[in-house]
Amino acid sequence: MTGYHLVLQHPNIDGCDLSCLHALRPSEIESPFPDSVRRFAANPGDILAPKVAAALDAQQIDYALLPALPFSAFGLIVSDMDSTLITIECVDEIAAEAGLKEQVAAITERSMRGETDFKQSLHERVGLLAGLPETALQKVYDEVLRLSPGAEYLLSECRKHGVKFMLVSGGFTFFTDRLRERLDLDYAFANVLETENGRLTGRLKGRPVDAHAKLRLLREYRARLGLNPEQVIAVGDGANDIPMLREAGFGIAYHAKPKTRQAARLHINYNGLEALRRWFL
């Protein structure tokens, strides 16, 4: 039977005050990440006392109750793109090229918080991009898009341990295709922006990639790879990620909106994507 651990993560874990956990017994399993991770023996039904959780949050320590599994036990990670694998919301930055960033970003924020329908808000935002030259997309990719901290490390660990990585985005294939090639991702799916004569029409081609599509793709590739639900990790930040986070064996809200944090079993609030790898052995 797999044991459970309370796992703590902080870039300088030795410098943190963990006296609030004095009653817990350190795990007998040596952590492969001694500089940033501490493990304590736990039981599946354990719940941190509010005062303990508050003390850890005050020091920006991420924490989770997890089975003591090796990372190689997983077969697939399904990840959102915007504000998860990368630091930006691409549609907002494209809109900046038309002087509409503030307007579009406000729609994005409401959508990611689950306050408006994602599909409706997507079409509204894309419509505002009508007339922009395709070169605006390349400019965003070249000059603005940045990977989230820990992304390249996580991907290298996936390749090392045989874990497939799938990018599923409510953003655009212009970016996911380039990231797939650049980062050697196994799979990537997103919305297709329609263009005519080198300019955006303000419309999408094909069915939109929304929350239902993300869930469908997770289920489809889980079945294709012959995996059990417990072998799949999903990570995202917005309300449209909630169905896939709930479906995965381990759903992780990454620097997420409140509604998404509430729905997810696990949270990375302070560390980068390296924390996803370091939850496990």
From TrEMBL:
Which Gene3D superfamilies does the entry mention? HAD superfamily/HAD-like
Keywords, A to Z, come to:
Amino-acid biosynthesis, Hydrolase, Magnesium, Metal-binding, Serine biosynthesis
Q: Which co-factor is required?
A: Mg(2+)
Q: Where is the active site?
A: D80, D82
Per the record's keyword annotation, is Magnesium included, yes or no? yes
**GO BP term, pick one:** L-serine biosynthetic process
- Know the name of this protein? Phosphoserine phosphatase
Q: What organism is recorded for this protein?
A: Neisseria bacilliformis ATCC BAA-1200
Q: What is the lineage of its organism?
A: Bacteria, Pseudomonadati, Pseudomonadota, Betaproteobacteria, Neisseriales
